[in-house]
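Chain and backbone:
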Amino acid sequence: MAFPPRFLDELRARVSLAEVVGRHVRLTKRGRDYVGLCPFHKEKTPSFNVVEQKGFYHCFGCGAHGDVITFAMQTGHVSFLDAVQALAREAGLEVPKQSREERETSERQATMQDAVEAACAFFEEALHGPRGRDARLYLERRGLDLATIRRFRLGFAPEASDMLKRALGKIFPEELLIDAGLVRRREDRAESYDYFRNRIIFPIGDRAGRIIAFGGRVLGEGQPKYLNSPDTPLFQKGRVLYGWALARAAAAKEPSAIVTEGYMDVIALHRAGFATAVAPLGTALTEMQIEELWRLAPEPVLCFDGDAAGQRAAGRALERALPMLKPGHSLRFAVLPAGEDPDTLILRQGPAAMREVLERARPLAEILWEVETTHPVDTPERRAALDKRLDARVRMIADRTVQDHYRQYFRERVFAAFGGRRGRVGPRHRARFPLSRRPVGGFDLAESPPPNPVPQSRRQQEVLMALLLNHPFLLDEIMEDLAGLHLSAPDLDKLCNELLRVHALNPDLDAETLKLHLSENGFARTVQGVLSPQVLTHAAFARVDADAEAVRMGWIHIRDQFQQPQLKMQIVEAERDLAEDMTDETWTRVQPLLEQKSEDDGATGGGIR
């Protein structure tokens, strides 16, 4: 039985997770959350955490994870239905009852699911039989071994027009096969035929991994090259991502998501160790698919081909995502070398080349800035037009907090590009980006010219992370101020968020245990870079042997450095206002900013060199 999402959300809200878990585990309150010995594996040191505010539990020892319903199922050894009914009684909620129509629809979908599963088995058998020889040779040439073919349940649809229809027609009525998208009726309705013919078959699963549809690649010449099942009661292609169930299993261990364009790309990425790869089904990424991606990771990486079609796909994804952005949830964009896709790149250059592409992924805000600065902005009128375009983009974002941060980000970019929003127009004040570039598809995903080896802004962020990793005691003292800082480097921002999450769950972790946990959970490379001599040579206060007072003074220095760009921008705007409106009121607002600037300019100490 399927329950309405609103009912399940209300059930989770009404039943205390800590109370349910507390019947099986002795919990100790730690901050806002609870810890205890894991009920799913033997342990002596508590690693089982209950995050009551967000409604989930997680064990750092065995990886067990879920909500109150999952916990009731696992500890009571009961079905989903039984767990929901028991919790509903406890919460005083009435379990929704299905209407006759809903029951009939549910039963029909179950039967349709059986038909689609039977079709999948038919296609698999055909691939490994005599008729599938050419299809097997094609897959072998693409580098797929038998284990991969079995894992993704690849198949083959024979060329004959009614083989599937005849095989399944012994069990399922023809109308059901038509409704399931397996058979199509001709326009004259005189006869029907198999929907897929002479195609390599890629089964498409739902969230639970149940086969609900198929994608087919033509074998040899023919159009269309790729064909997907039509929409059915089981399958709406705008809601589904190929490979989602496999990616979800991998993302439970390390939240991440890679979006690519095709079935073979997803399979190649999984084989190369990138197990959170998924793909839309031949269409532009939809809002519903973006929400599905955010179930896997807060910042999925969109990895499109570097050709015109790939850039257009990335541009459409940006447009769709912009109104949906919310705190902690966005997209990043990576681009492949010209003429390559993930499948060919991995085949020719190996997984390391693909990993490098993903590590160079750029945030949505940076791509959006690049989209709008492809136009010339070398006159006051054109710069005013840029301001107007950026403001229009920002207003598209529904979440006010994210909207405010985007507005601040663009102000800083304009300031960096022009030396002030209304500075004199001239060669010295032109934007520091190409003015005549006209990339195909509206913007260029390829990386900008190489920057300096390590920009000062990144070094500051690296020093901050080194300080927190080596001296986690500081977190309890600076949490509020730290929340106000913006880390522009995506990898460091991600590391900082994970560090804060782990600290919230285990505030007593020492530095070495904290580093070990982060390194074992996907941050090894970032942690190693942050703690390298190249970083620590710039800040003695961040080193392991620094005393507590030096650590605190170092934090104050870093905090002030983070705030300086914003202060400078405020001063520029205030001085401009003062020049235009020399009044006591304006001077009262400007004076504290100038005094703060004077104090900062005169400050000395053990800073980042």
